[in-house]
Structures are given as structure tokens and as C-alpha cells.
């Protein structure tokens, strides 16, 4: 019995890896069809991401926001809600952090830096909390509201970067690149490796991964978030205020995405500019799924997808294979990972009775969602 | 300054743009309506649109007929629909997330193909304006309604066609049954998975046509990520329209009206922060969803996979 359980655990961990390998195989087919040499492309990709110090530091720099977003996605999923609003939450987090850091630029760095991070996190909290509240109180589908909030955030960014937040120096110089003024140098996150972009935000992200693990598995709040995610009806019966925890999980999820935006500003760009979110809101979902929705699993997963993104850029420059390949591969990984869940679910159904499983079943998520809705409806009646 | 906005010719121009710009919203959200009525949420519409837009453009760019381009888009859309159906129906995966996978796949693949096969932004001559005789001569209304290209007319034709298929045919009855109570439908001998595969193919084809309507109808170029999230809006419009074709039509027109207004405000150089104006439809959608989420009858089995009991 024990051995079977260990074997099952091992397969759980290996399934995403298998999904990745299948995606890479499909990638080879695609490249062959397009008449490019897939092995040249893949070796350029790996070489670019991991072949030298510059590649590795870039990989880790990209992995930082992916990890923060991925942690947010873990919390949302564990709480039974889906957060597709990462992009928007990153943008508002970055905007708020920039506005605060530039606006209060004369505060001492020791006070300004934490407050800048907090304002980014707070903006993300709000941006995720609104869909959370609407879901909990009014039964509005959070997938739709988070998508809408993405669009609103992008519009807000376009407006602010072309008007109120546009760099005064640029205005004076007559150029109008839509970007903000630079943050005071005193609060730039220190670089971990000199002359690279690799900054100490990575340490913050890893510490937060531990914190999220602690939150979810070692505190009452986390226990309740997971309980609501696994079975809202039973949770309500046990006296957990379900709607409060639905709001909380989306708000916390948004907070981590907002923090990702603030860290990108403070660590990499030192100002707000268009395209800062760079698809991290979606790639973070991929990383979280790959890490089996576990905060600690998200650490290696985000490093892997950071490497994929960096490697793809390098590959484009070295052998002229478009970096968009990386996006297509991510899509395939998601499709394969969610499909492989059928196997996990069938197995866990077989062993119902002898082993309780703490693993979230990705495929069960929407049944949960439906049951929240039904419950809300019956409360109305 | 605002006077310019309220001359007759400007108003006619705005309404003309509104009718025209609703085309991709209509195709995509009508397609999504089929899927959702059968209980499958397809969040990957944007990815399918991009693939449709690319293939239609590529075929036309290579010198083929516009209708061949449209057929190519439909074929790709059906394939993407089948992929989504396989993952969501056969593999019973979480529908929201598999949709994100499909979106990323379509986004990445269409960019990859575009950069490898075409490389730079090129134009083609797409569907040409087709003024309907006599009707287009009516002052004002004639230009607004009857002076568009074939794809625009086709989009509006799809509204009654979709309504008819969903509400007045056997297939429609099966779709609604499967979306409402798959167990009961199964008991009556309806193939739940078969119906859902069908609606995914219909939805995929229509989403791809929506993409094609951009690349060979309205804009006549292909660019990476040219839909800019339009497919996600189409999904929301189905909720917005309470899963009814007329509601979807209303939502599409609303979004396109705001887009048209924005275009004209820019064209006339009226100093309104247009970024603020373009936020309005999104905010409005959230507000409408918030007020109606409890009242409207959504397909009871929406986003739930179905597995036969032993």
C-alpha cells in the first residue's frame, strides 16, 4: 500500500515533466514543418538560457515575477477561484509603486522602499479584491471580471503614461515615449550579480514562497482557504464564512501579482513603461500549474519557464526562430497538464476510502465553482 | 469643439463604423453562445481568432480567392475547436484553464507562423464594400446599414440563423438539453460528448471567421496579437447577453459603438482622454454582470464536465 502511494506521488510530480516533454516534441514537429532545424533551435534555446552567467542571471530575473504571480495563482486555485487577472494586477501594482516612489522621492530610502512595495501590493490587492468581492457577494463569474479588470488596467496605464505620469524630462525634451520618471536610485533593489539585471527581488520571491506555504498549511486562515476551495458547502456547514474567504483568496492572489509589478519596477526597469507586464500574468498561471499548485513547487517551475522565455529570445537572435515558439509551448504545456489530471482523478477515485488526498484536483475546480453558485442561489431563495 | 461630433454626417459616420466594427464581436460571441449553451466554456476564443486571422490572411496573401481564405480560416477554427473539445470533453479538464492553454497556443503559433512565413506587416485587398442596390440609396440609414462588405452582412445574418438553430431545430434542442441537464439528455439517448464536440466545432469555426473578418475584411493586415483580447470580450458578451442571440447582438453593438466613438473622437482631434472613454464598456460590463448575475438563467451545466456513471 505504502509503495503504491509513493509511486502515485512520484507519477504526480512526473506528469508535468512528461507534459513538458510532449510539448517540446510537438514543438519539434512544428519547427520541422516550418523548415527550420529543431535541434539547432532547441540547442540555441538551452544555450541562451543556461549556457553562461548572463543567461542564467536573465533566467532568474524573469523567474522572479513568474514566481510571485505563480504564488498568487496557487492561493486563488487553492481557494477554488481562478485568477486570470494577473496582467492587470501587475500593471496596477507597478503603476502604484511608481507613483508612490516618484511622488515621495525625498523620503529616506529605509522608509520609502517598503512603502513603495506595499503600495504596489495594495493596488494588486484592490484589483484582485474587486472581482473577489463580486464573486462572493453577487455570484459574478470571476474569470470574466478579472479579464475585464485586465483591460481596464491597460487602459488606465495608457492614460497615465501619456498624461499625468509621463516623465517630465521627456516632455521637456520633446520626445514622448510613454514612460514615467525614474525612481530615486536609493530605492532600486540591489543587484545580486554586478553588471546584470539579477536583483534581490528574487530573494523576496523565494521567501514569500515559504510564507505562502506556511500560510496555506500552517495557519487557520490557510486551512479555511483550502477548505473553501475543496468543498464550499461542507465549509459553510462547518461555520466558515465562505464568501469572506473567496474574496480573501482573490485579494491575496492579486496582492502577490501587484507585488510582482512593484518588484519589476524597483528591480529591473526603475520606472513604469508600457509592456512591463510582458505576459507574466499568463505565464505565471502556467508555472503554477506546472508546480502542481504548490508554493514550493512553483519555485523550480518558475525557473524553468523563466529559462524558456529567456532562451526563446536568445534563440530568435541566434538562429532566427521566432521567440513566439515559447508562448505556443506554454499553451501546449497547459493543455497537457490539465488533460493529464483525468488520470489523477480516476486514480484518486479508485482509492477513495483507503487514502485521503490533499492534492487539489485541477479538474474538480469548476464543480466547486458551480457548487458555490448553487449554494448562493439557495441562500437567496 | 463638441459641435463637430453632432453634425448629421458625423453621426452617420459613427453609426456606420459601429455597424461595421461589431462584425468580429458578433461572429465570436455567437460561436461562444453555441458552446456555452451546450455547457462548455471556451476561454480560448482569442487564440482561435488569431489562428483564423492568420490563415485567412496567408491564403489571400499567397494570391488565392478571399472565399478560399475564409474557408481556410473555418478549417483551422474547426481543428482548434476539436482540440478544445478533446481537452475539455474527452479529458474532462478544467474548462477555464484549458481555455487559457488554447489561447496561449493560438497566440504563440499564429505569431510563429506569421514571422516564419510572412515576416513583415503586409497588406492585402480584403472584402470590398458591397452597397446593396436601392437600400443603400436611402439617405443616412442606407449608408449606415447597407454599405458594407460581405462579411459584415454575414455576421448580422448569423444572428437569426444562430437563433433559429438553437431554438427551433433538433440540434438546438439537444444543445440546450446537454447544457442544462446532461444526465437527463444522456438518458434520452442524446450523445452528450457528441453534441459538445459539435458545438466546439461550430464555435471554433465562427471564432476563426471572426479573426478572418479582421485580417481580410476590416483591417486587411495581419499583426501579432492583432485581436488584442477581443476574444475574451466575446466570451463576456455571452454572459452579458444572458446566453441569448439578441442579447449578444446588443452587447456587440454596444462595444462597437464605443470603439466607433473613440475612432471618430480621435479622427476629429477632440481633446477627450480617449483611454478613459474606452474603459467604459469594460466597467459597464462588470456592472451589468454584477446586477444580473443572480437573475439570469445560465446553462445549468456550464463549465461542468460530464462523465457517465458506471
Question: Quick summary of this structure?
Answer:
The complex is a heterodimer of chains A (381) and B (310). Chain A is mainly α. Chain A has 15 helices and no strands.
List the helices and strands and how they pair.
The complex is a heterodimer of chains A (381) and B (310).
Chain A: H1 2-33, H2 38-50, H3 53-78, H4 86-103, H5 109-138, H6 142-162, H7 168-173, H8 201-218, H9 220-230, H10 232-237, H11 242-269, H12 280-290, H13 298-319, H14 324-350, H15 365-380
Helix pairs in contact in A: 1-14, 2-3, 2-13, 3-8, 3-11, 3-12, 3-13, 4-5, 4-6, 4-11, 4-12, 5-6, 5-11, 8-9, 9-11, 12-13, 12-14, 13-14
Chain B: H1 8-37, H2 45-61, H3 66-90, H4 95-118, E1 129-131, H5 141-146, E2 147-149, H6 150-168, H7 170-180, H8 182-187, H9 192-218, H10 230-240, H11 245-267, H12 274-292
Antiparallel strand pairs in B: 1-2
Helix pairs in contact in B: 1-6, 1-7, 1-9, 1-10, 1-11, 2-3, 2-4, 2-9, 2-10, 3-4, 3-9, 6-7, 7-9, 10-11, 11-12
What does this structure look like?
The complex is a heterodimer of chains A (381) and B (310). Chain A is 75% helix and 0% strand. Chain A is mainly alpha-helical and 381 residues long. Chain A has one domain (2-380): ABC transporter involved in vitamin B12 uptake, BtuC (Orthogonal Bundle). Chain A is globular and about 70 Å long. Residues 353-381 of chain A have low confidence and may be disordered. With 310 residues, chain B is mainly α. Chain B has a single domain (2-118, 147-292), classed as ABC transporter involved in vitamin B12 uptake, BtuC. Chain B has helices at residues 8-37, 45-61, 66-90, 95-118, 141-146, 150-168, 170-180, 182-187, 192-218, 230-240, 245-267, 274-292; strands spanning 129-131, 147-149. A two-stranded antiparallel ribbon of chain B has the order 1-2. In chain B, helix 3 runs antiparallel to helix 4. The longest helix of chain B has 30 residues, at 8-37. The N and C termini of chain B lie far apart (71 Å). The model of chain B has no long low-confidence stretch (mean pLDDT 90). At the A-B interface, helix 6, helix 12, helix 14 and helix 15 of A face helix 3, helix 4, helix 10 and helix 12 of B.
Amino acid at each position: 500500500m505504502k509503495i503504491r502511494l509513493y509511486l502515485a506521488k512520484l507519477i504526480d510530480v512526473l506528469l508535468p515533466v512528461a507534459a513538458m516533454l510532449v510539448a517540446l516534441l510537438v514543438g519539434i514537429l512544428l519547427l520541422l514543418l516550418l523548415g527550420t532545424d529543431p535541434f539547432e533551435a532547441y540547442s540555441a534555446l538551452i544555450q541562451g538560457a543556461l549556457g553562461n552567467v548572463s543567461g542564467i542571471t536573465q533566467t532568474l530575473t524573469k523567474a522572479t515575477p513568474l514566481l510571485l504571480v505563480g504564488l498568487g495563482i496557487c492561493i486563488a486555485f487553492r481557494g477554488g477561484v481562478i485568477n486570470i487577472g494577473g496582467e492587470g494586477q501587475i500593471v496596477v501594482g507597478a503603476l502604484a509603486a511608481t507613483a508612490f516612489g516618484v511622488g515621495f522621492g525625498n523620503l529616506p530610502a529605509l522608509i520609502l522602499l517598503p512603502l513603495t512595495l506595499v503600495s504596489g501590493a495594495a493596488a494588486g490587492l484592490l484589483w484582485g479584491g474587486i472581482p473577489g468581492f463580486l464573486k462572493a457577494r453577487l455570484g459574478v463569474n470571476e474569470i470574466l471580471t478579472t479579464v475585464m479588470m485586465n483591460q481596464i488596467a491597460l487602459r488606465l496605464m495608457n492614460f497615465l503614461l501619456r498624461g499625468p505620469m509621463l516623465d517630465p524630462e521627456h516632455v521637456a525634451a520633446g520626445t514622448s515615449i510613454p514612460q514615467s520618471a525614474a525612481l530615486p536610485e536609493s530605492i532600486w533593489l540591489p543587484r545580486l550579480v554586478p553588471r546584470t539585471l539579477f536583483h534581490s527581488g528574487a530573494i523576496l520571491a523565494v521567501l514569500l514562497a515559504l510564507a505562502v506555504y506556511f500560510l496555506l498549511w500552517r495557519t487557520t486562515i490557510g486551512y479555511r482557504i483550502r477548505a473553501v476551495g475543496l468543498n464550499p458547502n461542507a465549509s459553510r456547514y462547518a461555520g466558515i464564512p465562505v464568501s469572506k474567504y473567496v474574496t480573501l483568496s482573490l485579494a491575496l492572489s492579486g496582492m502577490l501579482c501587484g507585488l510582482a509589478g512593484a518588484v519589476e519596477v524597483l528591480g529591473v526597469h526603475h520606472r513604469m513603461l508600457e509592456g512591463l507586464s510582458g505576459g507574466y500574468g499568463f505565464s505565471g498561471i502556467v508555472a503554477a500549474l506546472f508546480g502542481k499548485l504548490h508554493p514550493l513547487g512553483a519555485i523550480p517551475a518558475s525557473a524553468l519557464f523563466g529559462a524558456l522565455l529567456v532562451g526563446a529570445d536568445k534563440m530568435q537572435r541566434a538562429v532566427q526562430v521566432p521567440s513566439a515558439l515559447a508562448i505556443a509551448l506554454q499553451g501546449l504545456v497547459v493543455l497537457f497538464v490539465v488533460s493529464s489530471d483525468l488520470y489523477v482523478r480516476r486514480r484518486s477515485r479508485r482509492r477513495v476510502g483507503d487514502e485521503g488526498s490533499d492534492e487539489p484536483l485541477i479538474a474538480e475546480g469548476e464543480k466547486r465553482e458551480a457548487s458555490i453558485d448553487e449554494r448562493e442561489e439557495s441562500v437567496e431563495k | 469643439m463638441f459641435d463637430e461630433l453632432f453634425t448629421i454626417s458625423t453621426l452617420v459616420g459613427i453609426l456606420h463604423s459601429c455597424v461595421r466594427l461589431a462584425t468580429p464581436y458578433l461572429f465570436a460571441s455567437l460561436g461562444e453562445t453555441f458552446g456555452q449553451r451546450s455547457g462548455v466554456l471556451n476561454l480560448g476564443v482569442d487564440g482561435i481568432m488569431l489562428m483564423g486571422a492568420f490563415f485567412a490572411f496567408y491564403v489571400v496573401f499567397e494570391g488565392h480567392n478571399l472565399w478560399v481564405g475564409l474557408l481556410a480560416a473555418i478549417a483551422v477554427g474547426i481543428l482548434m475547436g476539436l482540440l478544445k473539445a478533446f481537452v475539455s470533453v474527452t479529458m474532462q479538464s478544467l474548462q477555464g484553464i484549458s481555455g487559457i492553454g488554447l489561447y496561449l497556443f493560438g497566440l504563440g503559433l499564429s505569431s510563429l507562423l506569421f514571422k516564419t512565413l510572412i515576416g513583415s506587416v503586409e497588406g492585402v485587398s480584403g472584402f470590398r464594400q458591397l452597397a446593396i442596390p436601392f437600400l443603400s440609396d436611402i439617405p443616412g440609414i442606407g449608408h449606415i446599414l447597407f454599405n458594407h462588405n460581405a462579411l459584415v452582412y454575414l455576421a448580422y445574418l448569423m444572428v437569426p440563423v444562430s437563433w433559429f438553430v438553437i431554438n427551433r431545430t433538433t440540434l438546438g434542442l439537444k444543445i440546450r438539453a446537454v447544457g442544462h441537464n446532461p444526465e437527463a439528455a444522456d438518458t434520452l439517448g442524446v450523445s452528450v460528448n457528441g453534441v459538445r464536440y459539435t458545438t466546439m466545432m461550430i464555435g471554433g469555426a465562427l471564432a476563426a471567421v471572426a479573426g478572418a473578418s479582421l485580417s481580410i475584411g476590416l483591417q486587411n493586415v495581419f499583426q501579432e496579437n492583432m485581436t488584442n483580447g477581443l476574444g475574451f470580450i466575446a466570451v463576456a458578451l455571452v454572459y452579458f447577453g444572458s446566453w441569448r442571440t439578441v442579447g449578444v447582438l446588443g452587447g456587440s453593438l454596444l462595444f462597437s459603438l464605443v470603439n466607433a466613438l473613440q475612432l471618430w473622437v480621435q479622427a476629429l482631434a477632440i481633446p477627450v482622454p480617449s483611454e478613459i472613454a474606452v474603459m467604459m464598456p469594460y466597467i459597464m460590463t462588470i456592472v451589468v454582470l454584477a446586477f444580473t448575475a443572480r437573475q439570469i438563467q445560465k446553462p445549468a451545466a456550464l463549465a461542468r464536465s460530464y462523465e457517465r456513471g458506471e
